[in-house]
């Protein structure tokens, strides 16, 4: 991390162009002395083809964030960092690290790190996605070593429709989908454009298990990589990276 005695901290975010959720959710939990700086990649619909094309812009976005002297970079897109399965997320992080010249994380890998920090094995997943992307996410999580008890999607592709969802929508989806007898270690709410960080504390209180979201896992991970202290919601932010 850069010398914080001479300036405040900076987090670089690489986000889909249609994402309206990452920056405000990060800003809500970062300390005032840490600023958020974004670079955008073209994406209107959350489909395999658009996600695949979007990742081609990632290294250039990271390079440009490096010009802002950020302390770490996050590729804030869940399915965009897992569509090619385990290994792609780690390769993506390395490409971004080299381009920006600072530590880099990708949301899919951040989710894996978060679940491992929570010592979670059996999980339930709630998403806004279509069934095609739900299946790719299930495969990624299973190949990463997790027992996916269930996955529930809303069937949305237009990212503006996903961004219009609220924390109450996320909470209702989880509570309708997850049963008290499911014997889970954690619940994961997927998608960086699905506003859900504000629902975590209440969901954990009702379900009795840790709940993570894409933005929560990414925020926890990128701040850990940069060396920033952050007081986020839920059990995860009490765990070391």
TrEMBL record:
It comes from the Archaea. InterPro entries: Iso_Racemase_Enz_sf, MaiA/AMDase. Pfam families: Amdase. SUPFAM superfamilies: FMN-linked oxidoreductases (SSF51395). This is Aspartate/glutamate racemase family protein. It comes from Natrinema zhouii.
């Amino acid at each position: 991390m850069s010398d914080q005695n001479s300036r405040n901290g900076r987090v670089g975010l690489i986000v889909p162009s249609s994402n309206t959720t990452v920056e405000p959710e990060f800003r809500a939990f970062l300390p005032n002395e840490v600023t958020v700086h974004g670079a955008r990649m073209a994406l209107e619909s959350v489909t395999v083809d658009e996600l695949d094309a979007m990742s081609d812009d990632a290294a250039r976005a990271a390079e440009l964030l490096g010009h802002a002297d950020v302390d770490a970079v996050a590729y804030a897109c869940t399915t965009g960092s897992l569509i090619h399965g385990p290994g792609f997320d780690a390769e993506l992080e390395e490409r971004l690290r080299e381009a920006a010249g600072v530590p880099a994380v990708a949301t899919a890998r951040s989710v894996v790190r978060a679940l491992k920090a929570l010592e979670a094995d059996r999980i339930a997943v709630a998403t806004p996605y279509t069934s095609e992307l739900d299946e790719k996410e299930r495969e990624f999580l299973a190949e990463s070593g997790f027992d996916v008890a269930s996955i529930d999607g809303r069937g949305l592709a237009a990212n503006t429709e996903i961004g219009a969802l609220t924390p109450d929508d996320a909470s209702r989806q989880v509570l309708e989908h997850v049963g008290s007898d499911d014997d889970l270690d954690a619940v994961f709410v997927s998608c960086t454009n699905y506003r859900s960080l504000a629902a975590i504390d209440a969901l954990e209180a009702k379900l009795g298990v840790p709940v993570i979201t894409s933005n929560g896992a990414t925020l926890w991970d990128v701040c850990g990589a940069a060396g920033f202290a952050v007081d986020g919601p839920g059990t995860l932010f009490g765990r070391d990276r």
